[in-house]
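FAQ: What does a ligand-bound record look like?

Like this one, built around S-adenosylmethionine:
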Amino acid sequence: MTVMSDQQGAQTRPNSEPTAGEHGTRHTDLFDYDAELRLHNELFRAAARVGSRDRVLDIGCGTGQSTREAARAAVAGSAVGVDLSARMLERARQLSEDQGLPNITYQQADAQVHRFPPAHFDLCISRFGAMFFADPVAAFTNIGRALRPAARLVLLVWQDRDRNEWASAIRRTLTAATATPTGGADPFSLADPTVTEGILAAAGFTEVSFTDVHEPVYYGPDSATAFDAVLRLWEFKDLLANLDAATAEQARTRLRATLDAHNTDDGVYFDSRAWLITARRHRPPHPICPNHPSGANERLP
Ligand SMILES: C[S@@+](CC[C@H](N)C(=O)[O-])C[C@H]1O[C@@H](n2cnc3c(N)ncnc32)[C@H](O)[C@@H]1O
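The answer part, i.e. the structure of the complex:
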């Protein structure tokens, strides 16, 4: 396993998506991950290094910004975005159509079990969409089957909740408690590099490397916008929904105060820590010649 430090600031912006203003109004009730993650996305796109002929699979693509950026780079290739959410995909398809991207498709599917075409993709990417599997080894094994030997995997995942101010501070304001939630989909399930490397190795990936990404998340130009945005995140929406009316009102008041405290001249930001994970699909030993230059003969008896 390789662990590296922050890559802050090392980017150019080829193939980047038009901004919200350029592609029109957004679905107002969907959380705007593209705005939240705009600093992360620069690093993610640079790490993905999509080639012009690549066939790219985007896991948990949401409204598809990363899928469209991949499709733009893969001018002679293609991109497939997969997500569970019909509403996110509806938005993704609309944006792709608006932007006239011919080499892109979206599929509504559970990436853990969906039957992808075998050994088909050159690159699998996921921007915070691969942390929610009930059985991560089964899921990454299934995804691995869809990749050709030595294909690359590039993931962005959150580090621990305690290292993510957006999660810990907002949860504290809404619950006035520090207890870690139990059950449900866990956005921090791939936070531990040792555990995650074990999952990926068991699923047939090698050369696993972790780069520390230390960039703030953005919730909007002012506290009122940020308040609406934060309460579109299921994790926080659910917290409020479980409170009685008076307690929920107190929680909203605390949330407004916390957002005010994070309001800067450039908008509302919270600190965050993520891992940019890269790996390769295992290259199986050459069936005839163990010393084939593929170099992948180490598993032979
Ligand atoms: C945090 S959002 C990120 C969306 C998108 N990648 C982005 O950065 O804007 C996580 C996404 O993963 C999707 N997801 C969760 N579990 C999934 C699964 N088993 N198969 C496919 N998509 C999944 C969710 O529906 C959601 O859209």
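Follow-up question: can I read anything off the structure? Yes, for example: The first helix runs from residue 33 to 36.
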